[in-house]
């Protein structure tokens, strides 16, 4: 355990008292001088005030409570989101818990397979045969790891400063960077050769890997003909990946991998291009920025870096390979398992990341960007954290321009947005029962004299001629989506006013809290004469199939993939375009198995190529054991979230989404 230093506590004071507001709570395990020398400038000021020259500032006081917590991490001067807990036990022994998302993605710790959700074996510049095992704890949508022993072994320095856990790691140096090739492992594909980079380090240090943008081909000097058309590339460009280490590289290494200037080209000496790396060169650049070394790589399409660490000597090994994903099988919590595996379809290998949830141990709920309105998008990682979900996956479709939903969302028996185009949907209850099918919602407006008018869309961004209804779930106001709509305000089941909508996007109309708003578009505008102010109205509502009405929660997307164990893919019937049907793309899906287990899954690019088609996606989900499966929004929207982290991709590559499906811990 980390022990509080003697200077921290007055003998005459009780163990639990109120801290001085201006002081940071220091949890260092090494000497004060070493701490100050290694800190960032902002921390040096804090340390100087509270440690070196405590007058006239009062000395630091003990913790007011036996536990403090926050949601921000400062790692070697860089601030990032990250949940943590600090507990003070008997004899001032301190235990530090860090959310496993930030521990894995910001430090570079590798999680090893486990069947015990209360313990997580890890590897970080250590032996995989005798790993360090950390105790886990679930709280508030996160899984925390007891990193106390890890911190001691790594000789880190910690400080609690309000909401922030400040971490300083020992300064590290990069001794050498070696580029070479070696056979791939496993031996079954050992005939393939790969690029391999070995980074020799003085000591272990945090590292992260991030995917970047496609690398543009090297520019050439201007042609003699100013009107010449540059040839279009015939191959998919390489993509940039960055490996960032908290270590300083020797200047000779930086020089070794610096881009070389373009050769002179007469007669255009004045128009010479700046130095540019060769896009075919694996290492594009090595640079030191803010005491970090960034190794920029050029990785061929269909491949990615696999990064591992070893000790004796301390090395970071980067392998560029088409099957870079590491297979995992981790019991993450009771009733929730994290899986990663390659699924074979003929000669193709698809990396699949999925979560298996026991619906008797967790509950599912639709989630969306902002509970006050259906308008808006955000990264799934942000939305899931807002709802305190343990896990989540992106949900249905939406309009990226106006950020409006394009499909069914129903939560706790309340329709938030209606389905469109008879597309696939999944429904469930809190007893672990699921239902999938192609869903239609029929709403009918009933006026006196048995006048019945169909309502085509409910709280939807899908716009066609007809009547649409908008409720307070849409937000406080409605802004016309098309020109010349006729708006009817309905309060207490009666038409209270009629308004011209005018030009689209200009005038916002309040939606009554005790009713709803009707918009009449196109030819339906003539119905306004049949619904004068004061007309009493009732609503009738039904779903097709009727089974959907029995379930309180629904999310629509499509197309439907599997029903009752059979592949029933028919994207044409759900009015998806030919281009969408033929596209090879990253996919996300949700399904139930024969044993009642729920699975949410992300399927990324096949080894050496593009993602699956819809037909391949259906086959993959069936191989996973799905008996009822639905395709969710995919491509850049695909995001699989678990405890503060995205499992399937770098967060910077994930697009903003409108809604998702959250998994929450349920203690029964």
Could you please describe the fold and organization of this structure?
- With 668 residues, this protein is mainly β.
- The protein is built from 8 helices and 50 strands.
- Strands 1, 2, 3, 4, 5, 6, 7, 8, 9, 10 and 11 form an 11-stranded mixed beta sheet that branches. Strands 21-22-23-46-45-47-43-44 form an 8-stranded antiparallel beta sheet, with helices on one face.
- A hairpin with an 8-residue loop joins strand 7 and strand 8.
- The two termini are 33 Å apart.
Short summary:
With 668 residues, the chain is mostly beta strands.
Keywords summarizing the entry:
disordered N terminus, mainly beta, elongated, eight-stranded antiparallel β-sheet, eleven-stranded mixed β-sheet
Please give the largest β-sheet. 11 strands, mixed
Number of β-strand runs:
50
Low-pLDDT residue intervals, each spanning 5 or more residues: 1-64, 187-193
Distance between the termini: 33 Å
What does the secondary structure layout of this molecule look like, with pairings?
Layout: E1 2-3, E2 25-26, H1 32-38, H2 41-52, E3 67-75, E4 78-88, E5 93-99, H3 100-105, E6 110-111, E7 119-123, E8 132-139, E9 142-146, H4 148-154, E10 157-161, E11 164-168, E12 173-183, E13 193-201, E14 207-214, E15 239-245, E16 248-249, H5 251-256, E17 283-289, E18 292-299, E19 304-310, E20 315-321, E21 328-333, E22 336-345, E23 348-357, E24 362-368, H6 380-387, E25 391-394, E26 398-399, E27 404-405, E28 409-411, E29 414-417, E30 424-428, E31 434-438, E32 440-447, E33 451-455, E34 457-458, E35 466-470, E36 477-478, E37 486-491, E38 494-500, E39 509-510, E40 515-521, E41 538-544, E42 553-556, E43 560-563, E44 566-567, H7 578-582, E45 587-593, E46 598-603, H8 614-623, E47 626-632, E48 640-642, E49 645-646, E50 659-665
Parallel strand pairs: 3-11, 12-16, 34-35
Antiparallel strand pairs: 1-5, 2-10, 3-4, 4-5, 5-9, 6-7, 7-8, 8-9, 10-11, 12-13, 13-20, 14-15, 15-18, 17-18, 19-20, 21-22, 22-23, 23-46, 24-50, 25-48, 25-50, 26-27, 28-29, 28-42, 30-31, 30-42, 32-33, 32-41, 35-40, 36-39, 37-38, 37-40, 43-44, 43-47, 45-46, 45-47, 48-49
């Amino acid at each position: 355990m980390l022990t509080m230093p003697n200077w921290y506590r007055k003998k005459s004071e009780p163990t639990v008292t109120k801290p001085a507001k201006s002081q940071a709570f220091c949890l260092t395990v090494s000497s004060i001088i070493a701490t100050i020398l290694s800190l960032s400038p902002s921390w040096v000021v804090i340390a100087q005030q509270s440690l070196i020259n405590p007058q006239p500032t009062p000395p630091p006081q003990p913790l007011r409570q036996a536990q403090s917590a926050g949601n921000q991490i400062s790692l070697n001067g860089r601030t990032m989101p990250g949940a943590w807990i600090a507990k003070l036990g008997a004899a001032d022994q301190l235990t530090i818990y860090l959310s496993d998302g930030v521990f894995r993605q910001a430090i570079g710790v590798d999680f090893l397979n486990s069947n015990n959700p209360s313990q997580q074996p890890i590897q970080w510049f250590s032996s995989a045969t005798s790993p360090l095992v950390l105790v886990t704890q679930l709280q508030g949508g996160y899984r925390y790891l007891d990193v106390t022993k890890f911190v001691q072994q790594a000789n880190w320095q910690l400080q609690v400063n309000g909401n922030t856990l400040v971490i300083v790691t020992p300064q590290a140096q990069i001794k050498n960077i070696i580029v070479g090739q070696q056979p791939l492992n496993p031996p079954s594909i050992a005939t393939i050769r790969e690029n391999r980079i070995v980074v020799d380090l003085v000591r272990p240090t945090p590292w992260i890997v991030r995917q970047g943008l496609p690398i543009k081909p090297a520019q050439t000097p201007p042609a003699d003909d100013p009107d010449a058309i540059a040839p279009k590339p015939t191959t998919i460009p390489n993509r940039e990946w960055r490996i960032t280490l908290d270590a300083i590289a020797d200047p000779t290494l930086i020089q070794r991998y610096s881009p070389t200037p373009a050769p002179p080209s007469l007669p255009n000496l004045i128009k010479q291009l700046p130095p540019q790396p060769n896009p075919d060169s694996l290492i594009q650049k090595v640079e030191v920025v803010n005491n970090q070394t960034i190794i920029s790589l050029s990785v061929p399409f269909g491949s990615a870096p696999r990064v591992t660490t070893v000790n004796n000597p301390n090395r970071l090994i980067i392998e560029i390979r088409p099957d870079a994903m590491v297979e995992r099988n981790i019991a993450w919590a009771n009733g929730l398992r994290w899986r990663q595996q390659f699924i074979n379809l003929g000669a193709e290998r698809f990396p699949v990341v999925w979560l298996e949830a026991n619906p008797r141990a967790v509950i599912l709920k639709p989630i969306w960007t902002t509970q006050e309105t259906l308008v808006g998008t955000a990264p799934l990682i942000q939305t899931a954290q807002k709802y305190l979900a343990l896990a989540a996956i992106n949900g249905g479709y939406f309009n990226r321009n106006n950020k409006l939903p394009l499909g069914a969302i129903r939560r706790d028996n309340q329709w938030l947005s209606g389905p469109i185009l008879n597309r696939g949907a999944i429904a469930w209850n809190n007893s672990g029962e699921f239902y999938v099918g192609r869903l239609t919602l029929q709403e009918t407006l009933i006026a006196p004299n048995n006048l019945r008018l169909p309502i085509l869309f409910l709280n939807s961004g899908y716009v066609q001629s007809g009547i649409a209804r908008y409720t307070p779930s849409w937000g406080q106001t409605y802004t016309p989506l098309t020109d010349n709509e006729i708006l009817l305000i309905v309060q207490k089941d009666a038409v209270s006013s009629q308004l011209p909508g005018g030009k689209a996007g200009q005038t916002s109309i309040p939606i009554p809290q005790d009713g709803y708003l009707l918009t009449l578009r196109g030819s339906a505008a003539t119905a306004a004469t049949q619904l004068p102010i004061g007309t009493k109205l009732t609503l009738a509502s039904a779903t097709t199939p009727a089974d959907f009405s029995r379930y309180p929660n629904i999310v629509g997307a499509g197309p439907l993939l599997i029903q009752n164990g059979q592949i029933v893919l028919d994207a044409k019937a759900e009015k998806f375009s030919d281009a969408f049907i033929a596209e090879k793309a990253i996919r996300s899906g949700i399904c139930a198995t024969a044993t009642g287990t729920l699975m949410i899954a992300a399927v990324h690019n096949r080894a050496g190529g593009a993602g699956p088609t819809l037909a391949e996606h259906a086959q993959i989900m069936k191989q996973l054991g799905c008996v009822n499966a639905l395709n969710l929004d995919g491509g850049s929207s695909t995001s699989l979230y678990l405890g503060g982290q995205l499992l399937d991709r770098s967060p910077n590559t994930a697009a903003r989404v409108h809604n998702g499906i959250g998994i929450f811990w349920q203690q029964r």
